[in-house]
Amino acid sequence: MSHNEIIYGHVNRKFSHPHVRSRLEKLMGSNVVSLTDRGYMQRLQERILEDYAQNMCKRIATRQAEEMERVKNLVLIGKIPLEHAPPEMANHPVMLIEMYCNKLIDERRAKVYKYCIVLEHAPPEMANHPVMLIEMYCNKLIDERRAKIKLQKIHIPNYLYWDDTPDPPSGLCIEKGHAFRKNDQSLCTSPERLLIPTEEEEIENRYMFSSEEFENMKYEDPLIKDLKECETVEEMYALADEIIGVLKTITERKEEFTEMQLLESLNQPRESCPPEVPPEPSGRRMSVRPIPTL
């Protein structure tokens, strides 16, 4: 190892490397290294740690700024409600407009609230006033609409125990307010609901097919069942011949087709054809005499 090299673990650092020299000039102001000077090496270590801390703070600030911009964009596009906006957006134009609108809405609501209170406590002399007549008509319409709405009544049992009514002489403590169950009343939760239904109940409720219906839907020929149970290829081919029939090859089919064509040609009657005239010999013409009729 030369005098200008330092080994950190398995990494060999050379002070003569261009990147290391530029780093030294940035931290210490000079690229001259004195390895034997303890004070110089301590100052170098302090400068390295300070530079690392500064870079770390810069990265953290950059990430915080990026996160703030992301939150602002989510607020502006409506993904985050304005009520949950960060305090850094207090001076944003959108937030200022929102605050102004909320102020106007609160003022209008306060006026309406005062107006409603005045109408409720209005003197009887104002019964025929147009405003009071309109208010009475609106209240009448609201009552009619509410009367048409059918709210489902929820039956809340007044039994404090999930089990049957406990027996007082048995020494059990009964809570105050418990209503004893009558003989004709059932428990809050019927035990039959927790039991698994039988096959007969499933078939009656049409949740399950009976064995006969299932057999009709999934019918299979006995030969097909035997074919599935075959273990050798010979047995499979034998059953296949019984199911489908003996398959004929292409050559056998061609032979049968040619035989059928030949039989059809023999069975067809011959048409009457004119007698063939022999060809004339070369260099001599033959005169054909007419055949006398009898």
TrEMBL record:
Residues 266-294 are annotated as: Disordered. This is Uncharacterized protein. It comes from Popillia japonica (Japanese beetle).
